[in-house]
Specification:
Layout: E1 2-7, H1 9-19, H2 26-31, H3 36-41, H4 43-65, H5 71-80, H6 84-88, H7 92-130, H8 133-151, H9 176-193, H10 215-220, H11 264-313, E2 316-325, E3 331-340
Antiparallel strand pairs: 1-3, 2-3
Helix pairs in contact: 1-4, 5-11, 7-11, 8-9
Length: 341
Amino acid sequence: MRDVLKVNGWLLAVLIMLAGVPGASAQTAERAPSDLRYRLMHADRMAVSATATATAIAIATATARAPERHPAAAFALSAALPGAGQAWNRQWVKAAVAVAVETALITGYVVTRRRGLNEEDEFRAFAHEDWSPARYAAWINDYRVYLQEEIGTNITAPPVDIVDRVDYSNPGRWSAADRAAVDEMFDQIRAIERQSVHPETGAAFSHQIPDFADQQYYELIGKYFQFAPGWYDYPDWVTMDGMFTQAIDPELSGQGGTKVNVSETFYTYARDHAHAQDILRTASRISILFIVNHLAAGIDAAVTARIRSNRASVATVSPSVEMILAPDGLPAPRAGVTIRF
């Protein structure tokens, strides 16, 4: 960058003489403009004064035009608000780009997260409406008997005391007593699950039902087949005369490894749950990009400030003086200053 400041020496000389340049009095100042001999005799002094004055003005101009940029301050500005550090560095295009990216990320995060939360509310309502803890408890009681009588499994846990007086589709209206009763029922279910096995493989249950409305609760009931009997359209597992059907085993495999007893609602819910979680994960990824944008903008602003600070620290000032004819036709010195960054 080059800034050139030209100063008319004859004007500076008059000002300097009026201010009391050594050897110049008010009298000499009055006669100087009309005295060619005087002007020529004192041209060197006027030139030196003009050079010094021009140099001072040039340095002040350079300081005003190229203020020192502290990298730490530039980083802090853009780390707090992308584009702020770039604007401080007078990089307007970069500032506009950083602000645009920030706006897009914030908008994308808000819209995506809201959409994910809405779908999360929908699959929770789906679960409350179509998956019944009481139905699952009834199945686990019958499954306990099936394992004891048909498979010979030793289960010491007592049957579940099924709570069917509450509305599982609207837990927000439960009383404290209702909640306590449901929690107790879930504890009893888990006691049986810990001793249960899969007839086909003999393997113990890999999971136990989480507390009602827990985050894992919503995930597991649409992920593991052992919880399939809780869905409203799961096949009957006991006949009218008390005989067990094949539906007593939700893990029973059919042709191609399909689970023959698992209903379509189980899979529909699983897809809805997975879709909502995918959207929320996308929102989380956007939030990571949000942080990356802040860091990237901060680093860019700091690097630019460092480069400009280094350039400013090696600025050079080169004064020059030449004699010219003033408007009155008399010779006068003209000072010029070149500032390089």
